[in-house]
Amino acid sequence: MNGKRIIIVTGGTLGDWALGDIQSDDILVGSDRGALYLIQHGYKPDIAMGDFDSVTEDEFELIRASSHTFVDCDPIFKDLTDTEMAFNWALAQQPAHITLLGAIGTRFDHSLANVHLLRKGLEQGISCAIVDANNQIIVIQQSTSIARGNYTHISLLPLSMEVTGITLHGFQYPLHNATLQIGQSLGISNVLAASQGMIELETGLLLVIQSKD
Predict the structure, then answer these.
(1) What are the tens digits of pLDDT across the range 116-149?
(2) What is the pTM of this model?
(3) What is the rounded CA–CA span in Å between residue 145 and residue 179?
(4) Conformational region of residue 32, where left means phi above 0, alpha means psi within -120 to 50, and beta covers everything else
(5) How far apart are CA 168 and CA 193, in angstroms?
(6) What's the CA gap between 138 and 38, in Å, rounded?
(7) CB–CB of 33/11 below 8 Å?
(8) Residue 209: CB partners within 8 Å, gap ≥ 6?
């Protein structure tokens, strides 16, 4: 599946904005209620998986009948969240990129756990992002070019205990050989001064969060 994108739609906050991220040749994974979202918007999930404890019996049968592949599990006797199950499946396909939609929602514990999934993708050399109506979140561990696109702000937060050697090019508020530690807010709400910027770093894992507001 090299060269393909996988879109995982899971059960957090979703809206019409999510449809704009889906391309015709994407592999679509519906995680729990995310599968229902895809079906209700005219898409047939390539695979639907989860415990489906957030849907009704009728919705469960609709998901089963409307998905190319259907995988369900017992909601009690499982160790992983539905989103992590779907993410692990996606990683095993070795795609070019994975996008998570609906990974941010009202459950902060699930939202934070989903952000941590990005590290697993990085460790396997697979480009991954979480996208919602206002944000795009990635994790980097080496120098990376960042495009401004439709986003107005960009924040940098350490995912490891410490990130060293951070140098910013093309940003309104520059950093040179800086160190960020967990608990510091120095990297919050920067702005790209041009359409493209560069983040350099030496060690550590850095969350890059682009926001529209």
Answers:
(1) 999 999 999 999 999 999 999 999 999 999 999 9
(2) 0.93
(3) 19
(4) left
(5) 11
(6) 23
(7) yes
(8) 135, 136, 137, 154, 155, 156, 157
